[in-house]
Amino acid sequence: MAKALEHLKILDLSRILAGPWATQVFADMGAEVIKVERPKIGDDTRAWGPPFLKDADGNITNDSSYFLSANRSKKSVTIDIATPEGQNLVRELAKTADVLVENYKVGTLKRYGLDYASIAEVNPRIVYCSITGFGQSGPYAPQPGYDFVFQGMGGLMSITGQPDGTPGDEPMKVGIAISDLLTGMYSATAILAALEHRRESGKGQYIDMALLDCVSAISSYQAINYFLSGKTPRRMGNAHSNMVPYQVFRCKQGDIICAVGNDTQYRDLCVKVFNRPDLAEDERFIKVSGRLENRDALVPVVAEIFKTKTMHEWMALMEAANVPCGPIYTIPEMFEDPQVKHRGTQLTLKHSVGVDAPGVANPFKFSETPVVYEKSAPLLGEHTDATLQQELGLTAEQIQGLRDRGVI
User: What InterPro entries does this protein map onto (predicted)?
Assistant: First the structure.
């Protein structure tokens, strides 16, 4: 079956998470992704364990779960880009690549002759995407940065966590490296746009992506709330800034997410689920704006009602009334949900150590070019010899010479 991007070749000089997440998107859609890693060490995240993958004999390998999560279906080629010979190998690989993705500190690759200007000289059609913490310009551009920093600087932590004055009221980060993952997805989108422009114009281009920019961008409606009202958004726990009741409520047994998004749903909650038509007809609560203004009056009443039944009892009633609701799953519970199982979210992929490695599916569902998972993440340097032979025409003797000199 056809793959959406099988005509593309991606040269991946990135490591950690944002860049690898972007290039994995391309690998999932059939692109050839050649991942360039440091000899003997590889991508930093290979060592970010435990847990580590175990081979067929139960022995712990050198590849962590973190690395497996963002590098499936790629080819691993080890090249020391700090050496002139290594730099030349990368330039030769770049000649036939459609895309190059890198996330080195600003200026590093220019010293190696691997910056956009240098690569564009040998391949003017290339789409070159640089991913950094702060971008290529500005007072912070030279500084390194990690997800945690950008969750704080981007305003995300200021609106995540329990409200001031309540137990545990410190700013809270998201439970995954959301800055990296968002930047990876934004980068993949930007690259696809640049490729479409190239299709029409014949010209490649440079893309400057920054984690801080991406986290700032997803402030979305919270930022517009501030611009329109002049009020600084605050942490609200599990409540919503623009909808009520839209939060977690404690039940007689368990907790439930109640997500009322419009006036019709609110009325159905009151009449069909709670059997409280008085709440539906209360002038303070009929409209969204009224429920927001009178949040402190409505929420305690709703909270007391939810305490009268179990989470499962309320779920049945709310689903029957078509009122949005849901449980709060652990990760294992999420994968056991029948809907999640039906959508094929959990994967097992063949790995070169002789086992099936776990994975989480790409959410894209294409009718004509479905995602195809070729293999789990590669072993370090697994494809070095084959790639240098096939892509650059090097002989076995030439490759061995490079290995003897520590270039690969």
Answer: CoA-transferase_III_domain, CoA-Trfase_fam_III, CoA-Trfase_III_dom3_sf, CoA-Trfase_III_dom_1_sf
The dihedral built from the CA positions of residue 186, 189, 194 and 195, taken in this order, carries a sign that is positive
Q: Are 201 and 33 in contact (CB under 8 A)?
A: no
Report the distance separating Cα 188 and Cα 13, nearest Å: 15
**C-alpha triplet 180, 382, 80: angle, nearest 5°:** 70
Distance (Å, whole) CA 385 – CA 395:
9
Kindly tell me the sign of the dihedral angle through the C-alpha atoms of 344, 345, 348, 352.
Answer: positive
DSSP classification of residue 45: G
CB neighbour class for 144 (10 Å; exposed up to 12, middle 13-18, buried from 19): exposed
Give per-residue pLDDT as tens, 235-266: 999 999 999 999 999 999 999 999 999 999 99
Burial class of residue 309 in the structure, from the number of CB atoms within 10 Å of its CB (0-12 exposed, 13-18 middle, 19+ buried): middle
Is the Cβ–Cβ distance between 359 and 72 less than 8 Å?
Answer: yes
Closest CA to 306 of 239, 257, 260: 257
- CA gap 143, 161 in Å, rounded: 28
Compute the average pLDDT of residues 69-76.
98
Burial (0-12, 13-18, 19+ Cβ within 10 Å), 245: buried
- Give yes or no for residue 1 having a pLDDT over 80: no
Give Cα separations from 267 to 21, 273, 281, 284 (angstroms). Answer: 43, 9, 8, 13
What gap in Å lies between CA 405 and CA 238, rounded to an integer? 57
pLDDT one-digit tens code per residue, 357-366: 999 999 999 9
Q: Report, as residue numbers or ranges, the catalytic residues.
A: 180
- Locate tokens 């998201």: which residue? 174
Q: Read off the pTM.
A: 0.93
CA dihedral (188, 189, 194, 196) positive or negative: positive
Q: Which domains does the chain have, with CATH numbers?
A: 9-217+342-404 (3.40.50.10540), 246-329 (3.30.1540.10)
Q: Phi first, then psi: what are they for 354, rounded to 5°?
A: 95, 20
Query: How far from the centroid of its chain's Cα atoms is residue 334's Cα?
Result: 18
